[in-house]
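Methods — Computational structure assignment.
A single polypeptide chain was analysed. Its primary sequence is given first, followed by the predicted tertiary structure written as structure tokens.
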Amino acid sequence: MTKNATNESLITRLSPAKINLFLHITGKRADGYHDLQTVFRLLDWGDYLHFSIADKLISTIDNSANNSRLDINSLCGQLLTLAGAEAITSSIEDNLIFKAASTLLAAAIDSNKLPEYLPQVEVTLDKHLPMGAGLGGGSSNAATTLIALNQIWQLNFTQSELIKIGAKVGADVPIFIFGQDAIAMGIGEELTAIDLPEQQYLILTPAAHVDTAELFTHPKLQRDIAPLSIEAIKNQSNDYVQHLNTPYQNIFTPVVTSFAPAVDEALRYLQGLEKVALSTARMTGSGSAVFLPLDSSVIDDKTLLTKWINNAPCTGYVAGSF
């Protein structure tokens, strides 16, 4: 059932990338997941999501079933259309944007926040972030969808409530709802804000898709890094912001570079620039993207940056902190 609503409007949001300045596994949990420690840094570069609000409302009630709520996926399919994601998933229900919307609707039902009518929304994805690069593109899309639909549908979930909803969609979703640089623990949902200096990065995205699930089961993956306190991480930022000093590391790097030659080549290329950039190259997340923090003297030298990007063994970008 439909009825008239407000005139069509459009909301556009940046769906930012993230990098991990370091990434540790401190142990395996009883539920099968791993406990992590990392510092997430959000970037001013990413995808864009356009939310077009239609001029009609959809009933959330199934009048053929004694006024019960419609099936979540059925309701989400009526409320949401998705364009620009055809190359990511063959079915809309497999896309993280759709999964985020359906999880939000389920949470609204569980908390008795779902209105009787909701406006239809068309989501258009303007994709820039490569998939499988460890930059959080899909998780960022999901988080951006949760934030926007919470506003459009006037569900009034708080940020902390949205973070809990987002964690059900994916482990990296909460940081994008949090919306600022953070120390992350647990599976990535325990977030503590951290104040870091503005920074620019040279990011390379080799053409290698890394299977995260396969990495977590790899026999050579180190899963017992000694946990650090939040205060220690805050106080030791000089050991992982510009340079990467012991004990800070990305424990996925030796595993990924051992079976992904393109990642190894890209990382070695950036390591060759470290003396000039005055920083330490590293991999983000579970790969495949690698990055190099840039000293302020390098940032101002556009000719040098262009040369570095042109000579890189794969596609390169310069991006700044959020």
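Note: The chain has two domains: 2-191, 197-320.
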